[in-house]
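Hi R.,

Here's the chain you asked about this morning:
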Amino acid sequence: MSERLEMLVPLVIYLALSLAVAVWARNSARSAQGNFLEEYFAGGRNLGGFVLAMTIVASYTSASSFVGGPGIAYTLGLSWVLLAMIQVPTTFLALGILGKRFAIVARRANAVGITDYLRARYGSDALTLLTSIALIVFFMAAMLAQFIGGARLFQTVTGLPYFVGLALFGFTVIIYTSVGGFRAVVLTDALQGIVMLIAAFVVLVAVIVAGGGVEKCMAALAAIDPGLITPTGPDGKVPQPMILSFWVLVGLGILGLPQTAQRCMTYKDSVSMHRAMLIGTVIISFLLLALHLSAVLGRAILPDLPAGDLAMPTLTVNLLPPVWAGIFIAGPLAAIMSTVDTMMLMASATLIKDIYIHYVQKGEVKTVPPARVRKISFGATACIGFLVFLAALRPPDLLVWINLFAFGGLEAAFLWPIILGLYWKKANAAGAVCSVLCGLSCFFAISILKIPLGGIHPIVPTLLIALLGFVLGVCCGRKTDDRVIRLFWEEG
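And the predicted structure, written out as tokens:
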């Protein structure tokens, strides 16, 4: 029992700090001058470089970065480490391609979310409703997978009941997100990023020491299966088409994830953006390498685990003292919370801005008393989180596929309307709607029918067909309104 308590102490301290940050953020929002919605959903657009970098990294990483991905690396060896490192340019790509223009047009259009931007760019209610529904549905599915994955990890490592873990971090993330808004989310993301770095470093050092050094671990892996130290994995299970398609999925594709794109609207100035590009790239490089390499080297120590997903929890329990094991548990829980809080807040923003204010208040936020806006915003955020919590009480199977399906659906729906809306003047509402419909239809068909693609990930043909649909829609639809051209390209 004492070991369990030692394990829980750092976790409880971390959760308490998260709640304290939320209270501070709420008090800061009350004293801030300006629009409540901009403060609550975009943090007043004044993020510095370090916080911006940490929140992009933290919102992008999830339980799969600590458990699922390393679990596959345990099974497939260094080939999966190579594949995982494709994600290194995530922050650099997001801020480099979207950052400057996104921040400029978001301020001009007074957009605090992705669907705000799409409405301003395309002026289409059909597109706004389609993307709003896609965002809410896919986000809630992804949040469900994160809640359940975190609770199961907590259960595996501590031996405590599933419900205890679910309630402990589930209610924490619901409370600090609904109370503190975007400012609380990004500040806790920075805290969570630091926790993740500490956890990744500690477990990597523990594995290397237990294995007698990297050289001995590599020799042991070669003795188990020489394919574990090759670029294509045992029996060629990581073919070149898969490696190439992952550049689309986690390279170009991340520009279509609303939770990543949202961050590009919120930085303070260009200095902050450039600083975040550098810091974020360094941090995510270390995180990915440390976690996946730990699992691979860990196979030299524990070669006979029944499932790869058990690699990191088992290594943690076996190699680390209880207090450090508690810090490691805080790592993946931090990753889960930083993914969930972003999705929860963006889903809430969609409900408030795109449905309640636009359709109920006819687009006039000024007609809604500020106190009511605050109450509705807090209530909507808490309600979304609570619904996901209830769904997680009876966890379904196939969580990995739910998560991958959700992220693929988001990329299919949002990638081309976001990028082409920023950089192509001819992009119009017909093209965007056609792209969303074609992309989602293709992704559903390939995923549900399990159409063989020779090792290529379904997102590759999905994005190609979505792009074709966009071009066809542009050719058949109306010309972009001159007012939109002036707003996006000509105003100083």
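The chain has one domain: 2-398.

Let me know if you need anything else.
M.
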